[in-house]
Design brief:
By secondary structure, the protein is an all-beta fold. It is built from no helices and ten strands. The chain has a single domain, classed as Immunoglobulin-like (Sandwich). 0% of the residues lie in helices and 44% in strands. It is globular and about 40 Å long.
Length: 156
C-alpha cells in the first residue's frame, strides 16, 4: 500500500484544516499561512483544492494569493472567479455555465479576487507537480491593496 509514509503511485486524500483565524493588515506582501501547508515528496503529483472563508471589513483591501514551494515544483492554479463580474470570487462553486473560464496561473504568479464587506467563500484549485526536491508546499496570501484594516482567512 502506498501513502504519505510510503510514497508510491498515489496519495490518499489529505485534509488540512485552518486551526485559527489569521489576519493581515496594511500589507500586500504574501505571507505563509500558519496552517495551510503540507510536505511534498520527490516527484509527487497532487490536485489541491482550498475552500477558504475570507473576512474583510470593507471592499477596499481585496484578496491576493500565491504559493511557497520546493525548487523544481510546478503549479498550475487559479482562484475560481468570474472575470465578467469584476473578479469576485465565486464562493465555493466553479465558474457559472456560459461564463469565461479562469486562466490558470503558474507557481511564480499570484492571483487576486475582489473582497466583500463581511465573509465570503473562496475556492482555489491547483495541480501541483513536484520535482526531485522534497519540501513544503505553503499557501500564501495578503491584501491586494494595502488598507489599514484586518483581512482574515478564518478558521474552518
Amino acid at each position: 500500500m502506498s501513502g504519505i509514509n510510503n510514497p508510491g503511485p498515489w496519495v490518499p486524500l489529505i485534509i488540512v484544516c485552518k486551526a485559527a483565524d489569521q489576519a493581515v493588515n496594511n500589507s500586500v506582501v504574501l505571507v505563509n499561512d500558519d496552517h495551510l501547508l503540507l510536505t511534498l515528496g520527490p516527484n509527487q503529483v497532487l490536485l489541491v483544492e482550498l475552500y477558504l472563508l475570507e473576512g474583510s471589513v470593507s471592499i477596499n483591501s481585496d484578496f491576493k494569493a500565491g504559493w511557497s514551494y520546493p525548487a523544481g515544483c510546478s503549479i498550475k492554479w487559479a482562484i475560481m472567479k468570474d472575470p465578467s463580474t469584476a473578479g469576485y470570487a465565486q464562493g465555493w462553486r466553479g465558474v457559472a455555465p456560459g461564463k469565461t473560464a479562469v486562466s490558470p496561473k503558474s507557481e511564480a504568479q499570484s492571483d487576486e479576487c475582489a473582497s466583500f464587506a463581511g465573509t465570503q467563500g473562496i475556492r482555489i484549485i491547483a495541480l501541483v507537480v513536484n520535482g526531485a526536491t522534497p519540501g513544503t508546499l505553503n499557501f500564501q496570501w495578503a491584501q491586494n491593496s494595502a488598507v489599514v484594516e484586518d483581512t482574515k482567512v478564518l478558521e474552518n
